[in-house]
Amino acid sequence: MAIAWPAFLAACLLEFLVFALVDPADLHLAGHALALPRQAVYALGFFGFWIVAMGCSATTALLMRTPAQVNEGAGPAGARRAEEEG
Q: How far apart are CA 15 and CA 52, in angstroms?
């Protein structure tokens, strides 16, 4: 949830900003007008923004981990037990 909610809010903001300036009926792909209704373009844009924002949030969460947290689960499970017993 720490990744999905901030990404959702960022996608909402991007949706408002982009579609305040861009009319979905004016969008063209390879020289042809999109054959999608406005609501479909809004929905696809929102989910696209959400996916990109989740990637950014996940990267931020990954980079905020300390070296100790990163190394906690490093290596195969059996190797860690062997070190502790040996």
A: 12
